[in-house]
């Protein structure tokens, strides 16, 4: 709480509560929440759950988050929860007013959990509390929908940190949810390179120590940062300070331009490995020993390199051409595919599961920025639509859909 007070005192604004809300409890959200709870004096943490079923699963897990390292589970409790029901957020605190922990049923079977769930729903209060610090760790395609549900709880003094793959989500958020620049919260990006694998709901395996790179969002026009970006609000200072002082995250703060370079590097690698493995239904390492793959890879990277080197927000930063040359990017892709040779990419997993992929925020982002700059990215455009076709194909098979061409013929 000391950090929150300090951040508020520096600005002369009302005192921060220091509470951090987390939206998205997949690998990254679970790891970050668990890491924050591992601090000697953790900040109050609220987990945002988008439906009552997720809360029932939370009860089944005894209200615990677990991170498994070297075969051992480290379990953390004490998290407050908000549950979205009928488009309204409801608060379910972990601690009772008398300071005791809320009941966590130990009985066998689901009956005791069901009873506890119903008791919790009966007691829960509507929660419209303003959110000071929000960490968003949902998949990129559902970010706008997920953020819409808490948008009324965010203010221009709030800070939203996006811990996600891909780029372009902030533009979408501004267009769909915060069209008025004066009403927007402050945005931060983060890149996590820790090795994380899902074991079960609310339980992840920490397979390799990496880093967390944090920074504010660079403006797209290439001009100097706006006053809003320079004058950090207390919530931004508090969130940055809290995360960088949370040992398991291995977090460092970077200038917006440095962070953008890391993001673009990761985007370039993801825009090759993810779609190609999704289209070919193969492990990452299989991309390395196929001549045709390497030809497509080279063409993709030539377009990606052209677009990145022409971005207006990067002009004037030294060393861009060499850092994002097709040759250097190709060596990075090869190294990453080697390191993760036996892995199935997240995009392949999404295609197999019939989920929406992050393709619009990877190759789709390159295509959109290319169009803005007058660069035609034909290969990226083709790859994007092959992934979309693959995605649609699995959904259409399930629903027994009529082919598009036959529909057109019957309408003509």
From TrEMBL:
Q: Source organism's superkingdom?
A: Eukaryota
All copies of the Ketopantoate reductase C-terminal domain together span: 259-391
Q: What is the lineage of its organism?
A: Eukaryota, Fungi, Dikarya, Ascomycota, Pezizomycotina
Q: Which organism is it from?
A: Aspergillus nanangensis
Q: What top-level class of enzyme does the UniProt entry assign?
A: oxidoreductase
Q: Which UniProt keywords apply?
A: NADP, Oxidoreductase
| Ketopantoate reductase N-terminal domain sequence ranges | 20-216
Which Pfam family, giving just one, matches this sequence?
ApbA
Reply yes or no: does the keyword NADP apply. Answer: yes
For molecular function, the Gene Ontology terms on record are: 2-dehydropantoate 2-reductase activity; NADP binding
Q: What is its EC number?
A: 1.1.1.169
Entry's family note: Belongs to the ketopantoate reductase family.
Protein name per the record = 2-dehydropantoate 2-reductase
Q: Which NCBIfam families match?
A: apbA_panE
Record-level GO cellular component terms: mitochondrion
**Chain residue ranges for the region called Disordered:** 95-115
Residue spans of biased composition, Polar residues class: 101-112
| GO terms classed as biological process | pantothenate biosynthetic process
Task: Name the InterPro entries on file.
Answer: 6-PGluconate_DH-like_C_sf, 6PGD_dom2, ApbA, Ketopantoate_reductase, KPA_reductase, KPR_N, NAD(P)-bd_dom_sf
């Amino acid at each position: 709480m000391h950090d929150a007070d300090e951040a508020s005192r520096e600005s002369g604004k009302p005192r921060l509560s220091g509470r951090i809300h987390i939206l998205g409890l997949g690998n990254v959200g679970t790891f970050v929440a668990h890491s924050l709870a591992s601090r000697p004096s953790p900040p109050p943490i609220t987990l945002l759950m988008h439906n009552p079923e997720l809360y029932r699963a939370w009860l089944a897990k005894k209200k615990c988050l677990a991170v498994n390292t070297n075969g051992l589970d480290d379990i953390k409790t004490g998290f407050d929860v908000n549950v979205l029901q009928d488009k309204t957020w409801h608060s379910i605190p972990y601690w009772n007013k008398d300071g005791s922990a809320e009941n966590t049923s130990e009985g066998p079977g689901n009956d005791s959990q069901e009873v506890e769930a119903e008791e919790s729903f009966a007691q829960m209060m509507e929660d419209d509390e303003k959110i000071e610090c929000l960490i968003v760790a949902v998949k990129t395609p559902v970010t706008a929908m997920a953020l819409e549900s808490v948008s009324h709880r965010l203010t221009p003094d709030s800070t939203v940190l996006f811990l996600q793959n891909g780029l372009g989500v902030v533009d979408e958020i501004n267009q769909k949810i915060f069209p008025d620049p004066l009403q927007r919260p402050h945005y931060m990006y983060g890149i996590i390179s820790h090795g994380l694998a899902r074991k079960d709901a609310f339980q992840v395996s920490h397979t390799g120590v990496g880093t967390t790179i944090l920074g504010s969002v660079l403006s797209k026009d290439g001009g100097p940062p706006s006053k809003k970006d320079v004058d950090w609000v207390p919530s931004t200072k508090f969130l940055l300070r809290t995360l960088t002082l949370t040992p398991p995250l291995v977090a460092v703060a970077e200038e917006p331009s440095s962070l953008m370079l890391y993001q673009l590097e990761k985007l370039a690698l993801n825009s090759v490995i993810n779609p190609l493995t999704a289209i070919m239904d193969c492990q990452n390492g299989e991309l390395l020993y196929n001549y045709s793959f390497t030809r497509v890879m080279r063409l993709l990277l030539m377009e990606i390199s052209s677009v990145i080197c022409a971005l207006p927000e990067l002009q004037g930063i030294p060393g861009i051409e060499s850092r994002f040359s097709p040759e250097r990017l190709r060596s990075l892709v090869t190294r990453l595919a080697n390191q993760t040779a036996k892995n199935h990419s997240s995009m392949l997993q999404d295609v197999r599961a019939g989920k929406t992929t992050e393709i619009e925020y990877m190759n789709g982002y390159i295509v959109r920025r290319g169009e803005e700059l007058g660069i035609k990215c034909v290969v990226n455009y083709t790859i994007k639509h092959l992934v979309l076709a693959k995605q649609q194909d699995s959904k259409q098979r399930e629903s027994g859909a009529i082919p598009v061409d036959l529909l057109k013929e019957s309408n003509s």
